Amino acid sequence: MRGGASLDVSIELDGVLEPKAARPICYNSPGVRSVLPILYKRTEMALAGQSKAEIVNGTKAAFASNQLPALEPGAMSYMMSKQAYLTDAGDHNMAHLMIYTPHMDAAAWGADLPGSPVMFGASDPVNLFLIPIGKWSDGTPAPTE
Prior knowledge:
alpha+beta; 3 helices; six-stranded antiparallel beta sheet
């Protein structure tokens, strides 16, 4: 499968701008075509000084007016770099796979349930499920919690 790679250093799907973040991320082909445009749009709005609420509403409007492509089935990405700095909140890094889906009940994936490795990451404009991988890109063990 051929995909693409990106270095997302500015904004998450939830619209939070974290300037210290360094998020090396690799997308598969459906992710490149349907998730990256969302991130580019949100980054553009954040750099223009829009608030989180304005970014969320602007993203919804961009979908409604077909300025953003529909989410493709199978869109996914992974983050496996030890050097990543994901967030100021909690732990700063964890190797993981991300699967993007249309809005659905997170419980259908077992997300955030006791004993489940699946975590629910975001819900606007698409659902994001995170699954710890357990190893870094160099093959060494990575934390899973």
